[in-house]
Amino acid sequence: MDEVALRAIGLANGRAAGVKILGDGELTKKLTVSVSAFSASAKTKIEARGGTCEIVGGKPAAPAKV
User: Fold this and answer.
1) Residues sharing a CB contact under 8 Å with residue 55, sequence separation 6 or more, in sequence order
2) Which of 2, 1, 10, 3 is nearest to 61 (CA)?
3) How far apart, in whole angstroms, are the C-alpha atoms of residue 28 and residue 60?
4) How many CA atoms lie within 13 A of 55 on its CB side?
5) What is the pLDDT of residues 18-47, one digit of tens each?
6) 2 pLDDT exceeds 70?
7) How far is 19 from 63, CA to CA, in rounded Å?
8) Domain of 12: which CATH number?
9) Is residue 29 within 8 Å of residue 8, measured between CB atoms?
10) Residue 63: its pLDDT value, please?
11) What percent of the chain has a predicted confidence (pLDDT) above 90?
């Protein structure tokens, strides 16, 4: 998932560019996520499921809960 995909499904909003993934909630699937920033807990949860976290350009603006 990237910023465009997260915005399309309503998990990120706001006018500013960038998304920060927060670690609220539980994951049930392996994810590959490319966004501006991750909280430490979000990164840990994503990687624990075998997923990957990629930091891309832009300032984080709208947190998306994982």
Assistant:
1) 34, 35, 36, 37, 38
2) 3
3) 25
4) 9
5) 888 999 999 999 999 998 899 999 999 999
6) yes
7) 6
8) 3.100.10.10
9) no
10) 60
11) 48
